[in-house]
Amino acid sequence: MDPVDKMKLVESLCQVLQSAGFFSIDREEDVDFLARFSKLVNGMGQSLIVSWTKLIKNGDIKNAQEALQGTETKVALMLQLLIHEDDDISSNIIGFCYDYLHVLKQLTVLSDQQKANVEAIMLAVMKKLTYDEEYNFENEGEDEAMFVEYRKQLKLLLDRLAQVSPELLLASVRRVFSSTLQNWQTTRFMEAEVAIRLLYMLAEALPVSHGAHFSGDVSKASALQDMMRTLVTSGVSSYQHTSVTLEFFETVVRYEKFFTVEPQHIPCVLMAFLDHRGLWNPSAKVQSRTAYLFSRFVKSLNKQMNPFIEDILNRIQDLLELSPPENGYQSLLSSDNQLFIYETAGVLIVNSEYPAERKQALMRNLLTPLMEKFKILLEKLMLAQDEERQASLADCLNHAVGFASRTSKAFSNKQTVKQCGCSEVYLDCLQTFLPALSCPLQKDVLRSGVRTFLHRMIICLEEEVLPFIPSASEHMLKDCEAKDLQEFIPLINQITAKFKIQVSPFLQQMFMPLLHAIFEVLLRPAEENDQSAALEKQMLRRSYFAFLQTVTGSGMSEVIANQGAENVEQVLVPVIQGAVEYPDPIAQKTCFIILSKLVELWGGKDGPVGFADFVYKHIVPACFLAPLKQTFDLADAQTVLALSECAVTLKTIHLKRGPECVQYLQQEYLPSLQVAPEIIQEFCQALQQPDAKVFKNYLKVFFQRAKP
């Protein structure tokens, strides 16, 4: 619709509504009506702004000014609806409010009225961010979820206000924050919470690079520094309400760089984390969140933690307790939250300035109780008769492994396990945990935990882990289900990709046992309509192909070649089947990558005996039969990637076999597919093009034409 016509239509509608008394909303008590009316006003306001935008773009300044004036006359009504106590009514007008602020952002100079409108919107947003008395913090339901979403909308308005007038926003927040925290003991919880929340929200509303809020613009840095100082020294962290407590911790972590400017405040914040306000809070919700935030706080301040390390480790000792199921003792934190505490302990030890011997001693103190409890619990599991007890013991064992694994996240390229003198501790952990793999009970849970630990140790201990791999692999291959193999193969892939030739003897030894375990599961009969079994097999096939891709891509193809001619065919025929027979483009792409790599390695004149025959008998046909299938959907992005790898395979065959390949395609294979002579000629010319991209593009067209 023409912007001028739209503007006139909106204005005429407004006049009708106003003359009918609809704009006098302060006397209206029908909430449902007001909810619908606020949508209407929102639509009218946004329509006028759309007209203004188009008119400005067209250079029609006169009519654009008229559209802006029309918009301004609706702002008072918009503010009334925005501040309404019913959040649905308020929410319906936010779009108009947001767009209006966007208009003001584009104006060079704001009038006094426009400045007043900005301030009024700001005050409205601050007021509407406040929780109701009825908000249920311990059992949040649908109403609470709706308010959380509404708060997100208000945050967008606050961000837009910051773009229009950052100085005004900062001054307004500072005024509200300072007056509230001055008297926080006598302030209602929702007012205390929203004051701290506004400070928290400033970090995104007034963005800086890498959280550098306390450098650069002096007035802004000074205001934020002053508010943070007030926050941590006012004692508001002791407010007896979960929402205020959580907002305090969220804000100190968001503004962690404040503590590099004023490090003298670190001890009082650490104490808040480490007493009844934080990790020992009676609220499980506060405990859970502060476990995560404490981990972030310690990581971000790193070197500033040095004076407090031993004190912190002593204070969190009880939180590290592994709670066995049979003694009725419940750990202070859930196992998920304990993971953060173990990680934090690891970070404190590894990043400390202690010598390696001291780091090793602290790490041993941290992990020895886990190892001792693990041995006792494993013995109890072996003797347990009751299935429920077995499950709870296995979970506890799994937690112990998970906690040890989590401590290793502290290590980095700069601070390796060896440099910190901690190799021996983690090797002891390995020796303690690996016997769980031979436990016949609760195999899934135990294997999963130990496998995850091995993944971490491959990264942390590097070649020191290698002596443990053969025995661990042997146990993990016993009595395998599809899921076990899917989870085991990535471990082998990680070892192969990382250590390459170092693990060649191990790969040689376990290659066929692994394949037999995979094929045994894949060949198991399943019900025709069993979707779950079909999906498991599909994922296992993908895992098998990913394994072969890792082996061939890591320069370990001799591991396959050394299995003997009969076994090599047994390895590769499923790859041909994966490329052609299963409608799974992700697997098909991997299969063509494997085939292309093998042709590159073995496809020349000096390749393994019989491989050239395999190329013409199996690989070349696969490159045509797969794309000719009706299930090979060339409109699908993953399938296009599979076709691209198919093209690479054909180009590689041509590269390695030369004119012999072209002759075979021209005289034997393509005529057998009933391809017309002129198309065969065209195909062979494209194949011989030096630019691989040209052939890839041609191949797509070729198969689009070839499909019935």
Structure description:
This protein has 708 residues and is mostly helical. It has 33 helices and no strands. It is 71% helix and 0% strand. The longest helix is centred in the N-terminal third of the chain and has 28 residues, at 31-58.
Can you tell me the overall shape? globular
Regarding quaternary structure, how should these chains be classified? single chain
In percent, how helical is the residue content? Answer: over 70%
Report, as a whole number of angstroms, the end-to-end distance: 47 Å
Q: Which stretches are poorly predicted, pLDDT < 50 over at least 5 residues?
A: none
List the helices and strands and how they pair.
Blueprint: H1 3-19, H2 31-58, H3 61-72, H4 75-82, H5 87-92, H6 94-106, H7 112-128, H8 142-164, H9 166-182, H10 189-205, H11 218-233, H12 242-254, H13 258-261, H14 266-274, H15 284-301, H16 309-315, H17 335-350, H18 356-383, H19 387-407, H20 423-433, H21 443-460, H22 469-476, H23 482-499, H24 504-522, H25 531-553, H26 557-561, H27 565-580, H28 585-602, H29 611-628, H30 637-657, H31 659-672, H32 677-687, H33 692-706
Helix pairs in contact: 1-2, 2-3, 2-6, 4-7, 6-8, 7-8, 8-9, 8-10, 9-10, 9-11, 10-12, 12-15, 15-17, 17-18, 17-19, 18-19, 18-20, 19-21, 20-21, 21-23, 23-25, 24-25, 25-28, 27-28, 27-29, 28-29, 28-30, 29-30, 30-33, 31-32
